[in-house]
# Entry
Amino acid sequence: MRVPCPFCGERDAGEFTCLGDASVPRPDASSPDALARFVEAVYMRDNPAGRYEELWYHGAGCRGWLRVARDTRTHEIHGVAFFGEPEA
Amino acid sequence: MRYSLLSLVRQAFRGHRGWAPAWRDPEPRPQYDVIVIGGGGHGLATAYYLAKNHGITRVAVLEKSYIGSGNAGRNTTIIRSNYLLPGNEPFYEHSMKLWEGLEQDLNYNAMVSQRGVLNLFHADAQRDAAARRGNAMRMHGVDAELLDENAVRRMAPFLDFDNARFPIRGGLLQPRGGTARHDAVVWGYARAADSLGVDIIQNCEVTGFVRQAGRVVGVETSRGEIRAPKIGMAVAGNTSRVASMAGLRLPIERHVLQAFVSEAIKPLIPGVITFGAGHFYISQSDKGSLVFGGDLDGYNSYAQRGNLAAVEHVLEEGMAILPMIGRVRLLRSWGGIMDMSMDGSPIIDHTPVEGLYLDAGWCYGGFKATPASGWCFAHLLAKDEPHEVARAYRLDRFERGHLIDEKGQGATPNLH
# Structure
């Protein structure tokens, strides 16, 4: 698997570390149901077979945090962008 | 037909033409007492113990492909009970004891071989951790021996003891650990369950659940609707997918783990040996092949195949303790799909949906757990309460904060 880093170009997956689900926002700790929402955010996963949005860290490259859209059935990568920025 | 030396001799004289199929191939009936989804080791063991321990024989095991086609045929065949935490150790020791009597119980040669599991350590801090784990094991009545460097040298003189980066200082040995023949375990449970009246239905994929007044009362399958008041899921690897049909979201991610086998060589490795400074485990099969593996690839995958970065990492780890394997040719590698739970420990529990029960989240530990997983899941299905040694494996432990995090990694399934 090769990951097309927006800064470094296409690089071997071994340069990266995968953190997992990128679609989980940090819950608001002051909300009344904060405990239940943190349990959902920390532990529960959709774990889809198909398109999945993930966080990848390019530790052996630009050290950027990437948001990678990847198919978990084929490992095909559909899109990569720096986390927090729109897809190029 | 009971297998024995006598039956073997008798068949040998008849040209082996009299062997009966080891299990039937029945058509699914419309109604059972219990349905077990998943015809791997855990599902078949569950069905067997439901019939044997609890007298529930109207049981169907539904398998979407052929039995043992998933992770039961993809693991590295290691059995052991060298765990640290009180939630885990009694369960895995129960499994170890069942392994010890398995072949007599099933009347099937599962090639259980207690050749020892040796965890190497490379530094003083690791020696302390090994001693602590060994003491925890002994307090649970499990065998553990702390070996110094000389004892390991006598046992495995071929290791790279004076490696500059990872010198070997000793190891923690569980002499009762070892290996078993993974396919034979599946076949043995299938044959034994079938002989007690369990229907093993292959090529039968579950496509949905039948709900009535909120509870699950049956499954829709590729071979029609089948009903039962209790339905157990033992589909590790596909847990999230099957559970989502019942509207459940679980603390599980699906990751790929690769394993490797070399060409056959003469007897070399006496038992199972693991590297202490990384994640690498190796044993030698009775055919002579070196069987080994390492870490997960690290990303969610449903593909049953991995990438070269993980292959390179595993082989580097192997070279760090066993430089000689650089001369051995790799025969093949493959990927299995791990049901990685959020704390690295399994779940055997009711689900919030009435009538649906869960046996999942086996991470790397599924094969060695097969007998006890079946034993405890059958207990839960029959009596509606957790078995004594599986009390800690509750689904709600994540929100209660009672995690069983053997590796101390937190909610990072790709690191367990």
